[in-house]
Amino acid sequence: MIGGVLLVILGIALGLAAGWWLPPNGRRPVAVRRGGARRILLPFSGETISRRAMDSALRLAVAEDATLMPAYLASVPLTLPLDAPLPARAETVLPLMEAIEQRAARRGVVVDSRISRGRTCRDALSRLLASESFDRVVVPAGDGSDAGFSPEDVAWLLAKAPAEVVVLRPGPADHEVVTGAVVRGHF
Amino acid sequence: MAVDRTSGRHKVFLGMAPGVGKTYAMLEEGQELRRAGEDIVIGVMETHGRLDTARVAEGLEFVPRRLISYRGVELEEMDLPAVLRRAPAICLIDELAHTNAPGVEHVKRYEDVADVVAAGIDVVSTMNVQHLESLNDLVAELSGVRVRETVPDHVLADADEVVLVDITPGELLTRLREGRVYPPERIDAALNNFFTVENLVSLREVALRQVAESVGAQRIAYAGAVGTREESLQSAASQAVGDRLLALVEPNPQAQRLIRRAWRSAARLGADLDVLWVRSSRDMSDADERGLAALRQLVSLLGAELHVIDSDDVERAVAEFAAERGSTYVLMGRPRPASGLGRLRQPLPMRLMRRLEGVDLRVVADRAQRPEREG
Fold it and tell me: What is the complex's ipTM, to 2 decimals?
């Protein structure tokens, strides 16, 4: 009888101790949640990013509970050290990254941005491939204009990327882009 | 208005919403210019049945609108060729975001305005901030209403002057209820949809910020255009007096947003930015290594400095670092919920507030998410 009561008291005490010890709601705090284990790379090099590519990457991220990794490929002129500050570039890239993150947040997708430097965009991408791991790469193929990846870049990526590469065909909606202007003055 | 240049000047009256008085302000300016002897006409004006607005246009010359037949309907549009033939010194053109009836020279009215300005005619026009293309998503997120007629950002950016027509949300709602914005049959629908206090407060903030950014950009462009290097340096130095920002980060994805916020604040204050991670004695994980490398790349792009201090006493390390660097403003993310004995301590922001006297502290919140509805 006494043993039973002691067991009950011990159980209650252990329960209270566990409740005290665990973070609120018994879950991992939101601030350190890292999203899914899968990662989807979305490289870009300009002042805008194709809305179609962005939306495709987001759809994949939602479906696979993956983390979106938008990566800005910074080509640094040979006249500058590779790690030189690029404040003019920052003026356009950071708002764009904020805009991407806001768009992703609306879909509930965790974002882990990257910046990779190189002497060319391909060099920057090469360095990124060497230092990061991811499961998919989403790139829009260009149609001969400035937008999208050139056929040579796509072929190079298919040969080098240690992940599944999703190449989006050029489409009529390719002129629609996500731009950093959307958050100008608002972050 | 126009001096010493072949193209005209473009002045835009910007508002947060219909009914703030943009058209009224445009017409009042027109009347002043007319009294000053300027050759001024109204290219197009949308009174929306507002008698006050129509009254203030009295005495100003109108270029008659033209009738366009579209699918059996007669539509009135600004007569661009007639405006160009009339060639006044100044032309008032309302509602930049308006979409023209098919069959006229341009799809959008702002394109008509570009033609008028290119012809050497000064233009005074109006638009609401929610029509600005780049703000379309943001305004939709803030207000839940997405507008279809948009104006590219460069139209506002290229304008010579942007003037904010600002009234409080309460005053606008009073105007609306009194029937001074829409006819009686539309008032209830407007109050229930777009014209809520929350929407108007958000839109007002967006409009104020938009104009502030334009003014800032003009100031920088003007300083760059007319100042010597020494003058620019003096100007920069005067802005930077006393301010130095410190962003407290951990090598996780949320830190990137914190750094972006800190960088933006530093840019606005003309201040320098330090980024600090107080690394505890536990081993670094692979994710930490990758996160730290990502932060280094981001920080180096900005020209800021990333510092890593090894300490298990975050509060003390931050306080010493802030004192050493002369930080005046500390930004940090939302602290993790404490567990175990940590609950007995005050949260880190409170402890830093107490310890860092005279230093502002800002906790950057997680991004709020709001559902969006079509409207």
Answer: 0.72
